[in-house]
Write a structure and sequence with these properties.
mainly alpha, two-stranded antiparallel ribbon
């Protein structure tokens, strides 16, 4: 039956006892994230936490990040209540912990006029070490963000490098092929709402097929009629890009769509204390390298790759040897378009999906191709990662807009010195 429940007023000693029990329960939570959050909250009042509870939890804790927080709690408690020598040692040891509460406590000790001089000096030295470590961690994190941005640029540009290098076609609809891949990821996830991770995995080959098929259709119906007429090809593919944008608006509406990240791509992992890297960007870097390795292997070791290289170097000779250059052109355009679709799947994890998604990357994609050397996959990889890192290194100094301007000016100056890019194509260029 129903029981009457009445509120009990606790006195000071009873309240402390209940608080110690709650602390012990929070520290023993099964979820690692919950334990970390509880420890972060406890950092502000390390002296109010029973040290025997913290020590017992430290012996049982397996998670590295939680163990580091427990160790910091013990050192902070020593810094507050221990003898002078132990406090000095604790101040020096706290230089290895970058938690905000650690910094605040060290600053308070360093600025305390009543603190022993040796303790104040130890706290000041620890703060200098923390500042140095924080600067290094920020630089490493900036490079990581640059690598993730560069990986996106490589994925967006590598398909363009294939079609531009082999066929000499300036495809202004390449950004819309990226956009189609992103919408494919959204569509697959809409079909499998209860299996977000599986949907994202299935979206990769699906996006390749969808964007690749559209690319082959564009090559067969538009580009094939305009070979060796680059200005007209540029205008025609620009028209195709507008058609694709409007088609997507008509089918799915003008509003942006969101592709939910699966659990294994959410959150971050801690490399060292104070340096945490997000899973989604790490997966994008890995995905870029896998796509690059797959394309490189296909072009180097398959029959299709051999025929592709033959057509790229000398189209007339390849035809004479029996290579069906028209078929190779269609498959090459489909391959480049399919890779663009996979790039769209990666982009869907970083930004919202909308009809104008590809427009933000088409100019950068051409810059990557030109800087790396037209048609060179290694050049595309190096140029994409370099531009991504350069952009992220400049942003804190100049701002996002000015960083792009500075980078564009630097690229223009570079192209003036090396018009054929970092890795210019060797061999005979197709002339027919």
């Amino acid at each position: 039956g129903r029981r009457d429940v009445s509120r009990i007023a606790l006195q000071g000693a009873e309240r402390d006892a209940v608080r110690r029990m709650l602390v012990a329960l929070e520290l023993g939570a099964g979820d690692v994230a919950a334990r970390r959050a509880a420890l972060d909250a406890m950092m502000d009042e390390p002296g109010a936490i029973p040290l025997d509870v913290v020590r017992r939890r430290l012996e049982a804790e397996k998670d590295r990040s939680a163990r580091r927080r427990l160790e910091a709690l013990l050192l902070l408690a020593t810094l507050d209540t221990g003898p002078t020598e132990a406090r000095i040692d604790a101040a020096g040891a706290l230089a290895g912990f970058s938690h905000p509460s650690v910094r605040a406590r060290l600053q308070a000790v360093a600025g305390d006029a009543g603190a022993p001089p040796a303790l104040a000096d130890a706290a000041t030295a620890a703060l200098r070490t923390l500042d140095l470590r924080q600067g290094i961690n920020q630089d490493l994190q900036t490079v990581f963000f640059g690598l993730s941005l560069g990986s996106v640029l490589v994925l967006a540009a590598i398909g363009l490098a294939i079609t531009f290098g082999v066929m000499g076609v300036i495809n202004m609809a390449h950004g819309e092929l990226i956009m189609l891949g992103a919408y494919t990821a959204w569509g697959v996830q809409a079909l499998l709402p209860d299996a977000v991770g599986l949907a994202l995995i299935l979206a990769i080959p699906a996006a390749f097929v969808v964007s690749g098929s559209v690319g082959i259709l564009i090559e067969r119906t538009v580009i094939r009629q305009l070979y060796h007429r680059p200005a007209e090809t540029l205008l025609a593919t620009f028209g195709v890009s507008l058609i694709l944008q409007q088609a997507v608006r008509s089918l799915f509406g003008p509003l942006n769509r969101t592709v939910v990240a699966p659990g294994w791509m959410s959150g971050s992992f801690e490399i060292v204390d104070g340096l945490a890297l997000t899973y989604n960007r790490a997966f994008i870097i890995l995905f870029c390298l896998l796509v690059f390795a797959g394309l490189l292997s296909l072009i180097r070791y398959s029959r299709f790759g051999l025929e592709l290289r033959a057509v790229a170097q000398n189209r007339r000779m390849a035809r004479t040897l029996g290579v069906r250059s028209g078929r190779i052109d269609a498959l090459t355009f489909g391959l480049g378009s399919g890779v663009a679709g996979m790039a769209g799947v990666a982009l869907s994890q970083l930004t919202n999906v909308g009809p104008n998604l590809g427009q933000a990357y088409i100019v950068d994609s051409f810059l990557v191709v030109v800087v790396g050397g037209v048609g060179n996959l290694w050049g595309t990889l190096v140029a994409g990662l370099s531009i991504g890192i350069g952009n992220k290194l400049l942003e804190p100094v100049t701002g996002a807009v000015l960083a792009k301007i500075v980078l564009l000016v630097a690229i223009i100056l570079f192209i003036q010195k090396k018009p054929r890019g970092l890795f210019p194509q060797r061999g005979r260029v197709a002339d027919a």
